[in-house]
Amino acid sequence: MEYIIIGNGVAGTEAAKNIRKRDPLAEIKIFTQDHYPFYSRQRIPELLTKKVAVEGIFVYNLEWYHKNKIQLCLNCTVKSIDPKNQKITLTDG
User: Fold this and answer.
1) Mind listing the pLDDT tens digit of every residue in the chain (93 residues)?
2) How is 23-76 classified by DSSP, letter by letter?
3) What is the CA radius of gyration of the chain?
C-alpha cells in the first residue's frame, strides 16, 4: 500500500509513524513546504536566543525518517489533490 501525507507537523508525522507500526511494508511519503524535518515550534525562542542549535529543535531528525523508511519531501508545496485518480500535483509540476 502507498500512503501520501501532506504536511509534516504533528498530525502528518504521527500518522506516518502509526502507519509504519501497522504496516512495515507500506510506502510512505510526506510532502511538506517546510525546509526542515518536523520541529518543535515551542523551542523556537530557545533557538533565537542560541540556547539550542537548530538540530536541537527537531522532534525527528532525517535519520529517523530514513530508519523508518519514510520518504520526506521537503520544500514541496501541493497544488492540487485528485482523490478520484489518487494523484497529487506539486506547484513545480
Assistant:
1) 999 999 999 999 999 999 999 999 999 999 999 999 999 999 999 999 999 999 999 999 999 999 999 999 999 999 999 999 999 999 998
2) -TT-EEEEE-S-SSSSB-GGGHHHHHTTSS-GGGGBSS-HHHHHHTTEEEETT-
3) 15
Residue of 11, 57, 49 lying closest to 30 (CA atoms)? 11
Euclidean distance between CA atoms 35 and 74, whole angstroms = 6
Q: Are 7 and 16 in contact (CB under 8 A)?
A: no
Name the strand (E) or helix (H) holding 2. Answer: strand 2-6
| Residue the block writes with cell 512495515 | 24
Specify the residue for cell string 520518504: 71
Topology of domain 2-90 in CATH is FAD/NAD(P)-binding domain (3.50.50)
